[in-house]
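User: Before I run my own analysis I want an independent prediction to cross-check against. Here's the chain; please return only the structure tokens and, at the end, one sentence I can use as a sanity check.
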Amino acid sequence: DQTPDIVINVVAASALERNLLLTTQLIDMDPRMVMALNMYDELEESGDTFDHEAFGQLIGVPIVPTVSKRSRGIPQLFDQVIAVYEDESPVVRHVHINYGEVLEPSICKLHQEIGLCENIGSNLSKRYIAVQLLEGDEDAEKLMEGLCNQGKNVLELRDKLLKQIESLLKVDAPTAFADARYGFIEGAFRETYTS
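Assistant: Structure tokens:
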């Protein structure tokens, strides 16, 4: 019901690629966000290199390496939180994850239908709600049922779009979205991570 001022997204650097799935969901929600790349010492000790600044530019989120058990990077993290809050971070920008030629048109159609709901607040990302509905999120369904008279039409359209998605992709929608998110992460990793 409320929009946070800032989200501090804590991601373990030890299993970075796997841990970024939540980050892609947050990107869809479009809050102001800073990523704390925690246990960064383990990444450094492994010999792997990660250009976290370039990765942050790609996803539109400032990233601060931290080692919380030693308080390393914590002052820099809070400096970055303040910079984002005061709109002074050059890294912050909204990024749309491109879900591909089958999912994107479905998201757009559902987004337009959701836009007809008069009772949805401006603090809620209609694109995010569309993605959540296509993924079968029960909270998103309840939100649509409770917020607008148009909710029934939105859910009927969603059901129709789900059939099209599953027919074209031969997988269920949640799997298709997860695959697209991992593809997004993998693409950004190719440019910024070296084993």
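Sanity check: Residues 17 and 185 are 7 Å apart (CA to CA).
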